[in-house]
Prior knowledge:
- The structure is a homotetramer of 294-residue chains.
- Chain A is an alpha/beta fold and 294 residues long.
- The first copy, chain A, has a single domain (4-225), classed as Aldolase class I (TIM Barrel, Alpha-Beta Barrel).
- In chain A, 48% of the residues lie in helices and 12% in strands.
- Chain A binds chain D through residues 17, 44, 49-52, 80-84, 105, 107-113, 115-117, 119-120, 123, 139-140, 142, 247, 249-252, 269-273, and chain D through 17, 44, 49-52, 80-84, 105, 107-113, 115-117, 119-120, 123, 139-140, 142, 247, 249-252, 269-273.
Amino acid sequence: xxxxxxxxxxxxxxxxxxxxxxxxxxxxxxxxxxxxxxxxxxxxxxxxxxxxxxxxxxxxxxxxxxxxxxxxxxxxxxxxxxxxxxxxxxxxxxxxxxxxxxxxxxxxxxxxxxxxxxxxxxxxxxxxxxxxxxxxxxxxxxxxxxxxxxxxxxxxxxxxxxxxxxxxxxxxxxxxxxxxxxxxxxxxxxxxxxxxxxxxxxxxxxxxxxxxxxxxxxxxxxxxxxxxxxxxxxxxxxxxxxxxxxxxxxxxxxxxxxxxxxxxxxxxxxxxxxxxxxxxxxxxxxxxxxxxxx
Amino acid sequence: xxxxxxxxxxxxxxxxxxxxxxxxxxxxxxxxxxxxxxxxxxxxxxxxxxxxxxxxxxxxxxxxxxxxxxxxxxxxxxxxxxxxxxxxxxxxxxxxxxxxxxxxxxxxxxxxxxxxxxxxxxxxxxxxxxxxxxxxxxxxxxxxxxxxxxxxxxxxxxxxxxxxxxxxxxxxxxxxxxxxxxxxxxxxxxxxxxxxxxxxxxxxxxxxxxxxxxxxxxxxxxxxxxxxxxxxxxxxxxxxxxxxxxxxxxxxxxxxxxxxxxxxxxxxxxxxxxxxxxxxxxxxxxxxxxxxxx
Amino acid sequence: xxxxxxxxxxxxxxxxxxxxxxxxxxxxxxxxxxxxxxxxxxxxxxxxxxxxxxxxxxxxxxxxxxxxxxxxxxxxxxxxxxxxxxxxxxxxxxxxxxxxxxxxxxxxxxxxxxxxxxxxxxxxxxxxxxxxxxxxxxxxxxxxxxxxxxxxxxxxxxxxxxxxxxxxxxxxxxxxxxxxxxxxxxxxxxxxxxxxxxxxxxxxxxxxxxxxxxxxxxxxxxxxxxxxxxxxxxxxxxxxxxxxxxxxxxxxxxxxxxxxxxxxxxxxxxxxxxxxxxxxxxxxxxxxxxxxxx
Amino acid sequence: xxxxxxxxxxxxxxxxxxxxxxxxxxxxxxxxxxxxxxxxxxxxxxxxxxxxxxxxxxxxxxxxxxxxxxxxxxxxxxxxxxxxxxxxxxxxxxxxxxxxxxxxxxxxxxxxxxxxxxxxxxxxxxxxxxxxxxxxxxxxxxxxxxxxxxxxxxxxxxxxxxxxxxxxxxxxxxxxxxxxxxxxxxxxxxxxxxxxxxxxxxxxxxxxxxxxxxxxxxxxxxxxxxxxxxxxxxxxxxxxxxxxxxxxxxxxxxxxxxxxxxxxxxxxxxxxxxxxxxxxxxxxxxxxxxxxxx
Lengths: 294, 294, 294, 294
């Protein structure tokens, strides 16, 4: 059972486009010292699609070596082909990952019927040496994992949960209602963290936890302690910064925000473009205002 | 300030297509005896687009005459043209409506810029003798009222609130954060009633309250009393019936469900088609199961 | 059988919001003197959704009285309810309309299944005293009439054709392939007039014909005369002005363009907003350039 | 300048999931003997997203070795990262590819602004040793290359053209109107081949040319010879088979159709699922009917 707040760690790049491991180490040390339950390596916020496989393996190894040994490490292992996803999942499982996070294949949207998706996840879960977390991310993939499909998949003994970034709170509620227990249901965006927890979600894997990990953890603690009004105010306060670093602008904004908060964001990798001055000011202004009012 | 649970009342039609006022009276009596704060007449669930203006006026008059005099009546007054919406809003205001519920005009989606929508609502609110509630209903209109637009409109002294059926819980949270108080924020679908209340919504106007008014009211009371776990279970239990009578099938299913629950659903009006046997069984089966487990 | 180029006539409004019949007369006289096969009254470009029924009846009567008696008049008669569409179709049929143009009902998008739409059009066609043209207009209605549905409906003896504004050229080709002859297939936007004619369309009902009727007619003549290279150049030349008066800006731009071309556009009716200076210059600039290069 | 009909070659897989080079050879020999101007290797129909880089290199080498030496070979070289696309484009350029076909990066849809996309294609074109063809494929990528962006990119001396699978015939017309010559504009789906050619497209790269290469070439010849009525009939006849092997079902159907037509389709690679019996019969039935009536 996975619980608590995870952050899908960003990958800082140097001017020459290489992974900046010094910055990565700095960040891993900081996240290790927080209340975070764990990290996700090679998630969307980690720009995994821009990394070669050699870089992926190096980065996973580095995180396993340097992140707090008592906290969990989940690794994104998605490829379009079933065979590749299985191969890479086995590899990171052997390296020591606690679980893998797997997107639906999504290039051939018309061919990815529920039957095809179900067979894919079943086969990956059958062969993966560590638990599989489903990763529902329609804004990036153009494919939604329906609550009915997720409920069916929850019966697989090696499918441990879902990170749901879809933002459809009714669908999330249906998953909570229907999934076979134990099944870890994680909010995938801090914009709906409180609603998800209210309905019974077990945790979250959210970009915002890169830069405000303690605040995300505190929101969860407030709910556990029944301090609903404080939780409500915190949720509303978090919205604006969260919007900018996710749906509003995205990873490039998250990196600027990270640097502002004492982490090392580094640069995004091309084709992603670094923030222009105006957007940088918007992100830093939102953070400044948040820090004053929290 | 509007608060509590409202039901957007269905309009029962007879075999010959006319409004069945006997059935309407039966339902109004039953709703009057519940904890509902009020009703919405001429909402989407009332099939307002299928009524002639003469029928609309008759129906509003009938509801004002027969619904509990201490409860509120909100009337849907949307037309595509500004002038018509104002004219009809004045009329129902004079008839005794407590407020009007107004959709964005939506036929010319490309022309309905935020500027056009803002001017529309401002002008309607300027001239309407009773408070205006905004009605955000993207599934039917294809137009979304952004949280920024709603926040601007909340400054108008005669715009009293919003019924938000969009289902984007983050957007709803932004409205709660940004609207100028007092501003009544109503969930527009019972599928996200608990999340909305958790974030600070003031009430709801939901189709489900036609058939399960006390259960909807109870969910709100549970939240007010801090009984979160009971509220959570009730929310999850309500999902399936709610799905069928709203997004899953719609008004025709709501009418069948109403009849099953001791209300008088009557028939939908053409071109809407009554439920086939299979869907009828699905709706009744879901209700039966809900009643057993609640 | 309907053939040739029709224009869905704009409705000029005066400063006080009333229909400006003097301007309407001016335009009808000019259109009468062109090669247009006919006009459509109460189409989308005529802002039909902003007119009261009394205004609709007056306007239809005025057009029948003043438009060229040897040309055809098709009238838009769409209401959401089956009964209202039939009632109004009968009325304009008795007034002398040559055909009616009917949208799918579209407020309850989830309930408007193919079965519901088919029953609707069948019943309207059964009872309408003049031929029915289907009107596929997804950008405004959010509903698409599939080629399979259109093909089935083409078997009804009183369904005479379709105006297809969807812009899916493959779907249009399928309709041409499958519809039971005779069936008049009209392009609904001048942006794809040449492709539609190449595939076998019988004509067009396009906004652009309000302001450049002869050019639209000439494109059709060029195709009939086998002058494909000239047709091709004309099609490409027409694109920019057409874009601005349809998908790019819309009816408000069409009215400005009309006035520039010697017609009387008048104002749009609220909530539609008249063009700002910048857009006005863009529209007039595009027309100026077109007139120089044609 | 690229002209004529290309086929984006399918990749036949064996039961064990490996590339079946014997089948590939069989197909290359057959395509070599047709009027096709060339082939595209590693296109969407080639399931390029399911191939490892080693397999991609092998396959490209195999095609260069075995395909007709006087015909052209275009290779799909898309990766999400700019650096990877450039690296692989250089590699296949050195191997002998005549051009590369490049998708917009599309995982971070929110970050792929026009500015980011323009910078991406400019940089790839700057560094690629052979001409670059843009590849607009919104159904798979969720990103559209606007006609304005394509027009700007057409100014780059090493951007040679576009394969446009979007199916928006107006957008295609705008590209034809605005692109700086020489610029090769290819229809990306046989469903709108005739409309595209009518407007001035230079050719096509279409899945259907895998199985009916001569018929696709004949359509182009008919247009060049001014035999419009024959072209029109051929276009309409091709629609149904084309629908099934592209938008209707997809690559798995294309493979079944290939085998039916004397090519060797082989199996799709997982997670794509082979056709079930019912769909197989539908595809074969459509082909049978086409062959009888052509």
